[in-house]
Write a structure and sequence with these properties.
With 100 residues, the protein is α+β, with helices and mostly antiparallel strands. It has a single domain, classed as Ribokinase (UDP-N-acetylmuramoyl-L-alanine:D-glutamate ligase), CATH 3.40.1190. It is 29% helix and 27% strand. Helix 2 packs across helix 3. It catalyses: pyridoxamine + ATP = pyridoxamine 5'-phosphate + ADP + H(+); pyridoxal + ATP = pyridoxal 5'-phosphate + ADP + H(+); pyridoxine + ATP = pyridoxine 5'-phosphate + ADP + H(+).
Amino acid sequence: MGDHGAMYVPENLLPVYKNKVVPLADILTPNQFEAELLTGRKINTEDDAVKVMDLLHEMGPDTVVLTSTDLLSKHGDQFLVALGSQKISKVLSVFFPQQG
């Protein structure tokens, strides 16, 4: 749908994604911007990300993976942070190097 604060699709499609597409999904892989759009919640901390993933689970998907976030890694800012969760299990964090 978008990234870095910009939509790739017309804004009027957001309700379609939110109300029709997401509830049908088994697995949802939004980036941080898309997750924030779908839930109306900002992600500033890992706790915020977990709450947003919980909200996305409530919308339907069993598995949610935030494919990239602006969260700072414990390993420094040269790493992107991805987080994933399933309705029945804990959150998994993955750190991978950013390409320069």
